[in-house]
Amino acid sequence: MAMNELTLVFHALSEPTRLALLEHLRSGEHRVRDLVDHMGLAQSTVSVHLACLRDAGLVQVRAEGRASWFSFRHPEGLRELLRCAEALAEEAA
Fold this sequence. Notes:
Protein name: Regulatory protein, arsR family
InterPro entries: ArsR-like_HTH (IPR011991), HTH_ArsR_DNA-bd_dom (IPR001845), HTH_MetalResp_TranReg (IPR051081), WH-like_DNA-bd_sf (IPR036388), WH_DNA-bd_sf (IPR036390)
CATH topology: Arc Repressor Mutant, subunit A
CATH architecture: Orthogonal Bundle
Number of strands: 3
Domain HTH arsR-type: 1-93
Keywords: DNA-binding, Transcription, Transcription regulation
Radius of gyration: 13 Å
CATH class: Mainly Alpha
Organism: Janibacter indicus
Structural class: alpha+beta
Largest sheet: 3 strands, antiparallel
Order of helices and strands: HHEHHEEH
Strand order of the largest sheet: 1-3-2
């Protein structure tokens, strides 16, 4: 993986709202509307964060009619990455 790709991944993971979106996506695929309702944020705000996660290769989008569905791009790898990050954060605390 090139340094630029790693930078995109760590940038995407550095923002609490994006981490909260990833945490919610752990349970499976969700529509943007569902994510907006869950987060209590404007659709434009959620969309910007989802675009960052998508650009980093962490999530994928699937269009169905007028709805966009988001899910983990590499479910097991991303779950493991999040578990490792949580373990590191606990050790640092």
